[in-house]
């Protein structure tokens, strides 16, 4: 179990970004974390993967445990060795290196023992293993970013907006790949603004707003929730606006 308990995070000693966040990612599951830009989703992933220090962030309350053991004070490489890998938003591939060199960088803690699995999931990467990564398409670079994270053989994979900037036809491929990665035994925490895609494959979902969890339900219930539909498909920016919008519609009717 990967678990976050009452987590508070401050940036630059003054900016409180996470405000008592708690969530659970059970082994074998896909858990979706939804929210608008600025809600605190990426900060939460940084806390899970040990990358807060790089961005001048600090955990001031609460913690993160993996299989009951605290990991929130560990360095990123130590967290990877314990089985947690992150695919960061924006792919962050090493553009000047080849595909296979990028993958080997991802395997610095486990060698190349997972290379066959990655090439099995992404046959295109095998075909282009000698290609310079910077010349790949956006979708191919996303495959490479996921493959690089899988090279460490993680038990838990943290995905930050994997469908961002991709054509609709590629979003479906990303969805299917996440399902297959999970089927092969890797637990997934999926951060997404594409709520429909994320909730269609998740078992449970959390919704963040201004650094707090404001909704927590089984994914199928969130997918059917009218407030979620208003928030993600309507012209509103927060759940407070959803409620105000509904009150206004009743007043005008």
TrEMBL record:
<dbReference type="InterPro" id="IPR052156">
    <property type="entry name" value="BCAA_Transport_ATP-bd_LivF"/>
</dbReference>
<keyword id="KW-0813">Transport</keyword>
<keyword id="KW-0547">Nucleotide-binding</keyword>
<dbReference type="GO" id="GO:0005524">
    <property type="term" value="F:ATP binding"/>
</dbReference>
<dbReference type="Pfam" id="PF00005">
    <property type="entry name" value="ABC_tran"/>
</dbReference>
<protein>
    <submittedName>
        <fullName>Branched-chain amino acid transport system ATP-binding protein</fullName>
    </submittedName>
</protein>
<comment type="similarity">
    <text>Belongs to the ABC transporter superfamily.</text>
</comment>
<dbReference type="InterPro" id="IPR003593">
    <property type="entry name" value="AAA+_ATPase"/>
</dbReference>
<keyword id="KW-0067">ATP-binding</keyword>
<dbReference type="InterPro" id="IPR003439">
    <property type="entry name" value="ABC_transporter-like_ATP-bd"/>
</dbReference>
<dbReference type="GO" id="GO:0015807">
    <property type="term" value="P:L-amino acid transport"/>
</dbReference>
<dbReference type="GO" id="GO:0015658">
    <property type="term" value="F:branched-chain amino acid transmembrane transporter activity"/>
</dbReference>
<dbReference type="GO" id="GO:0016887">
    <property type="term" value="F:ATP hydrolysis activity"/>
</dbReference>
<dbReference type="InterPro" id="IPR027417">
    <property type="entry name" value="P-loop_NTPase"/>
</dbReference>
<dbReference type="InterPro" id="IPR017871">
    <property type="entry name" value="ABC_transporter-like_CS"/>
</dbReference>
<feature type="domain" description="ABC transporter">
    <location>
        <begin position="2"/>
        <end position="235"/>
    </location>
</feature>
<keyword id="KW-0029">Amino-acid transport</keyword>
């Amino acid at each position: 179990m990967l678990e976050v308990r009452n987590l508070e995070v401050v940036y630059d000693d003054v900016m409180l970004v996470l405000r008592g966040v708690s969530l659970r990612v059970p082994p074998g599951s896909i858990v979706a974390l939804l929210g608008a830009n600025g809600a605190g989703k990426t900060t939460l992933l940084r806390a899970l993967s040990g990358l807060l220090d790089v961005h001048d962030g600090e955990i001031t309350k609460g913690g993160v445990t993996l299989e009951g053991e605290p990991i929130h004070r560990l360095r990123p490489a130590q967290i990877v060795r314990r089985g947690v890998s992150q695919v960061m938003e924006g792919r962050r591939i090493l553009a000047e290196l080849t595909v296979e060199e990028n993958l080997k960088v991802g395997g610095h803690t486990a060698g190349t023992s997972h290379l066959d699995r990655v090439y099995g999931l992404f046959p295109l990467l095998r075909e282009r293993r000698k290609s310079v990564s910077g010349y790949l398409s956006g979708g191919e670079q996303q495959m490479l970013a996921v493959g690089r994270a899988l090279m460490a053989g993680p038990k838990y994979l943290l995905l930050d907006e994997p469908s961002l900037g991709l054509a609709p036809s590629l979003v479906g491929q990303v969805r299917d790949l996440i399902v297959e990665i999970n089927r092969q035994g890797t637990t997934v925490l999926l951060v997404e603004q594409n709520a429909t895609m994320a909730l269609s494959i998740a078992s449970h979902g959390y919704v963040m707003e201004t650094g707090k969890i404001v909704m927590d339900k089984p994914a199928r219930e969130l997918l059917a929730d009218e407030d979620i539909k208003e928030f993600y498909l309507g012209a509103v920016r927060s759940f407070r606006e959803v409620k105000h919008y509904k009150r206004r519609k009743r007043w005008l009717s």
